[in-house]
Amino acid sequence: MDLQIPLLAAKALILLLLFAFIYAVVRRGIGDLRAVPEDEAFMPGSSNPMKKRPDRHRIISKGIPELVVEDSDIFEHDTRFQIGDGTVTIGRSSSSDIALKSDDYVSSRHARITHHADLLYVEDLGSTNGTFINGRKIVGATPLRSGDTIQIGSTTFRYVE
């Protein structure tokens, strides 16, 4: 009889913790689903559906693939990063090819851009806040097309060929 009350309390505590865990998982899942915009409700390159769509034709391409900064707290507008034939890493780490050092929403190893069969792919490297192409969170290696926007943390790049 002396052990029944503490055992009952322990069972109740374990059940409460289980419910709290399930609640947190479901809440996070619903939040992630709400973060994915509907096709009709978003403009590519903008998390705000009412924001004016950037003009894709104002960037003059020289045939060299590059990332052009559209919006950033770190880089000047229209800063250009050429993408060579190798792998380009983006992250907060100073060893990254494109270092977003002061952005708290960027992981140290956030994303990677690679060439495969004459196509460029962006891959999220398990970052906390994700990588977005044209406003959609990517999963796995995702091909890039000229004019696509890539959002990493608070920085938005436009890919141009």
What does this structure look like?
By secondary structure, this protein is an alpha+beta fold. It is built from one helix and eleven strands; from the N terminus they run αβββββββββββ. The chain has one helix spanning 4-35; strands spanning 66-71, 80-82, 88-91, 98-99, 111-116, 119-124, 131-133, 136-137, 142-143, 149-152, 155-160. It has a six-stranded antiparallel β-sheet with strand order 2-1-11-10-7-8, with no helix packed on it. The protein has a five-stranded mixed β-sheet with strand order 4-3-5-6-9, with no helix packed on it. β1 and β2 form a beta hairpin. The longest helix is centred in the first third of the chain and has 32 residues, at 4-35.
List keywords for this structure.
5-stranded mixed sheet, elongated, 161 residues, alpha+beta, single chain, 1 helix
Layout of helices and strands, plus pairs?
Layout: H1 4-35, E1 66-71, E2 80-82, E3 88-91, E4 98-99, E5 111-116, E6 119-124, E7 131-133, E8 136-137, E9 142-143, E10 149-152, E11 155-160
Question: In short, what is this structure?
Answer:
The protein has one helix at 4-35; strands spanning 66-71, 80-82, 88-91, 98-99, 111-116, 119-124, 131-133, 136-137, 142-143, 149-152, 155-160.
